[in-house]
Structures are given as C-alpha cells and as structure tokens.
Amino acid sequence: MSTDAEYYFNTETGEVEQGKPTAWTHRMGPYPTREEAARALEKAQSRNSAWEKQDAEDD
User: Fold this and answer.
1) Which residues form the domain of 11?
2) Where on the phi/psi map is residue 14: left (φ > 0), alpha (ψ -120 to 50), or beta?
3) Model-level pTM?
4) CA distances from 58 to 26, 44, 49, 52 (A)
5) Is 16 exposed, middle or buried (0-12, 13-18, 19+ CB in 10 A)?
6) pLDDT, tens digit, 9 for 90 and up, residues 35-56
7) Which residue, 24, 37, 43, 57, is most buried by CB atoms nearer than 10 A?
8) Helical segments of 1-59, H only
9) Burial 23-37 (b: 16+ CB within 10 A, else e)
10) Where is region (Disordered) located (predicted)?
11) What is the domain count for the chain?
C-alpha cells in the first residue's frame, strides 16, 4: 500500500493529513479513510476508557 493512500491525524495541528508530511511524533495512524483519521482521538479515548474500566474490574 502506498503511503500516499493512507491518512494520519496530526496531534499537533488537529488536522488530517494524507501521506506522511510531518514527523512520526505528531501522527496517529495510518487510517484507510480521511473520516477514520478525523475520529482518531475519539477512538483512542474510547479504547482508553475501556481499558481503564477493565483494569478497575481486575483490581
């Protein structure tokens, strides 16, 4: 898969980028669509919440 066909969420600017124009330290992804990349933070927060809930149940 070409990196130009992949989308990334830039955590520094809050914008979706196609390809890899910025440093990896500011990128989340890759995602197959622009829409999925735009929801990157929402998806990460959802996963974190689920993991925290599981950790609390395990304690």
Assistant:
1) 3-58
2) left
3) 0.72
4) 32, 21, 14, 10
5) buried
6) 999 999 998 888 888 888 888 8
7) 37
8) 34-38, 40-58
9) eeeebbbbbeeeeeb
10) 35-59
11) 1
